[in-house]
Predict the 3D structure of the following.
Amino acid sequence: AMAGWGWARTVRGLLLDISGVLYDSGADGGVPIAGSAEAVRRIKASGLKLQLCTNETQATRENFVRKLQGLGFDISVAEVTAPAPAACRLLKERGLTPHLLVHDDLVSEFAELDKTNPNCVVLGDAAENFTYANLNEAFRLLIGMEKPVLISLGKGRYYKETDGLKLDVGAYMKALEYACDVQAEVVGKPAKSFFESALAELGVPPEQAIMIGDDIVNDVGGAQQCGMRALQVRTGKYRPSDENHPKVKPDAYVNNLAEAVDIILQQL
Amino acid sequence: AMAGWGWARTVRGLLLDISGVLYDSGADGGVPIAGSAEAVRRIKASGLKLQLCTNETQATRENFVRKLQGLGFDISVAEVTAPAPAACRLLKERGLTPHLLVHDDLVSEFAELDKTNPNCVVLGDAAENFTYANLNEAFRLLIGMEKPVLISLGKGRYYKETDGLKLDVGAYMKALEYACDVQAEVVGKPAKSFFESALAELGVPPEQAIMIGDDIVNDVGGAQQCGMRALQVRTGKYRPSDENHPKVKPDAYVNNLAEAVDIILQQL
């Protein structure tokens, strides 16, 4: 299992996806994936730098981190790179006033922004807020804009919760893109600028960083596009058919985060 | 206005879209477009053949025709080509057992079909049935199939109701296509086989038929692909920007169905 891991000897930092790597999310708050909390502690004890890079948009970063701490993870808000704060910066820079179609618990991330007379739509994983009425409202606002601007917090296809697979924000993004004949701007993985922000927070150049995630396209493909190595875990939304993906091949597969950390630490 | 209509002299039959041409739909049952009921009567009196070709899937063909008769239109069930009966034939031919994500009022069109252990998903304009829960259910069934089969009753982007624009089935089709990495099979306009069925019922070859619709892609583009001439009315979902469509150009624009019939009958 350790043959072919020579490249891991120069690693100085790890970027970890959260959902499907640290824990499986769910309406009940979710459950940790076996060995993951201990793996995070081992990374920190090893002296490797650590940053979490998530597309989670069902909660503010503060509440999300609090939940993960409650599940036994030793992580802080500053260690999490998430789409909503990045989108907030982008909206401010461009003077955009958003209409939000997001989860109720995410709304406060955008508290500082003016939302009157919206000139763009921000789409997150709105979950139960993905109603027929809300989708029609977002659509009507977009189609009524002279130049529709749709900002999507990630473009995931689906994710796994404890009660089964759920459609992710990317599916709804595609619906609005098609209806309005626009292309969304994605803030979150796999956007290069988002990985670059996470690497800047990690403080390590891409060739000395490894991304570990369960999503073949958004984690593995996105990180590799930035010049990083990337591992796919066989937890979370991983499916055996991912191993035949026509375009993306991870640098290695691991059964879970604990195994990845075992192997990486053995190379150092 | 009549220059350049010489080709209309050989016309023997008309295919008419319904929503946005005969009437504007809405929760209140909808309202006829001025002059359209009279235009239908004039077509019939002229001896031209007439067939209605709709992507309507919010009601059975029987109930839809009854509603239109109530709005003053002299039409019968046999004069309407609609996606649900066509999909039903296709499902039977291929021995498919559908999971339906359609409007409640359409379900009875599929009464004859076995629906246990579904091996395909049939998507119509489900309107209020486009809930988060129903979309997740359809998604989970598809992603769980060895070879997912998604059949979409039309692929319209949006349509106009009396209270505003609504997302059409095509937007939800795109969401499921993306999430499951499949390509839907479209039964309805603009599919060539659907126009061919309508022409067969009209009993006129494509070069002697004219399609009249409000949808630049699904009505005009689809009919032209079949070798028909096609007019776009400036009613229903028509928007001025349609006149700059990068790929589709109607053979002529008309303000409404009544004007189209006026001009066509003058050529004969």
Observations:
- The interface with chain B takes residues 127-128, 130-132, 135-136, 139-140, 143, 157-158, 164-168, 170-172, 174-181 of chain A (CB under 8 Å).
- The helical segments of chain A are 36-46, 61-70, 83-94, 132-143, 169-180, 192-202, 216-225, 257-267.
- The first helix of chain A runs from residue 36 to 46.
